[in-house]
Design a protein that fits this description.
With about 260 residues, the chain is α/β, with parallel strands linked by helices. The chain has eight helices and nine strands. It is about 45% helix and about 15% strand. The strands form two sheets. It has a seven-stranded parallel beta sheet, with helices on both faces. It has a two-stranded antiparallel sheet with strand order 5-7. α1 links the parallel β1 and β2 (about 35-40). The mean pLDDT is about 95.
């Protein structure tokens, strides 16, 4: 007998849905049957968003896309309100939106620190608070928070990003303890994932192809991750198959943090 993940009848709110990991999660949860409310900084009439809507519809699902800046509390309130008005429920929250803010600890100024903390920490707490009343009414209320393998191990020059991502692990624990058992809270800590952002990073090197190979070979798994793989793991974690999983953050980084890099 095969195992299938069925999220039909569920509504998933996904932040940062317009690109990268968020786009992969959107497609995979839609493939599992969930209706999707997604947000991002990309305009609603952008060709990329129209194409994403078509792909979701081709999977037999629906996508309500709302342009929103998750660092703005009022825009988050509108996001949640419009999701409820359109779908009538929220069963799953995937708090994914974020971006790298890499500086040295001494070089980082207050402006970069505050922007990083608003985006990579505070926004996850705020959107979780706004969704809480609706998640509590669901039979499968689940919050999935996207952190990073930088919460487990990091390298010089990744401050203050690694500080915020480490704090998200604590947020996962706190919400699981305070809001359970009606809401499960789980974290995912991805490593190198094939996105436009990672391509941009590799392009900063003199030989991007060689740097990509060097990075790939640092992983015991011998590969970089894909957004579809992260999306599939999300689909499992928000499904009934993972009902005993809460309060934990799962590292998904090809084994990189398991290996001491000499």
């Amino acid at each position: 007998m095969s195992i299938s993940i069925d999220l039909s009848g569920h509504v998933a709110l996904i932040t940062g849905a317009s690109s990268g990991i968020g786009e992969g999660i959107t497609k995979m949860l839609a493939k599992a049957g969930a209706k999707i409310a997604g947000c991002g900084r990309t305009r609603t009439n952008d060709k990329k968003i129209l194409q994403l809507k078509k792909e979701v519809e081709d999977l037999g699902s629906q996508l309500l896309y709302i342009q929103a800046d998750v660092t703005d509390d009022k825009q988050l309130q509108i996001l949640v309100s419009e999701t409820m008005s359109h779908f009538g429920s929220i069963d799953i929250l995937v708090s994914n939106a974020g971006m790298n803010v890499f500086k040295g600890a001494a070089e980082c100024d207050t402006e970069a620190w505050e922007f990083n903390m608003d985006l990579n920490l505070k926004s996850h707490w705020m959107v979780s608070k706004l969704c809480r009343p609706y998640l509590e009414k669901s039979s499968n209320g689940t919050i999935l928070i996207m952190t990073s393998n930088h919460s487990e191990a990091t390298i010089p020059g990744c401050f203050p990003y690694n500080v915020a991502k480490t704090a998200l692990v604590g947020l996962v624990r706190a919400l699981a303890i305070e809001w359970g058992p009606l809401i499960r809270t789980v974290g995912i800590a991805p490593g190198y994932i094939e996105t436009s952002g990672s391509k941009k990073w590799f392009s900063t090197f003199a030989d991007p192809i060689a740097e990509r190979e060097r990075t790939k070979n640092m992983h015991p798994g011998g590969q970089l991750g894909t957004t579809e793989e992260v999306g599939a793991f999300c689909a499992f974690l928000v499904s009934s198959y993972a009902s005993f999983a809460t309060g934990s953050t799962y590292v998904m980084d090809g084994g990189r943090t398991a290996l001491l890099q000499d």
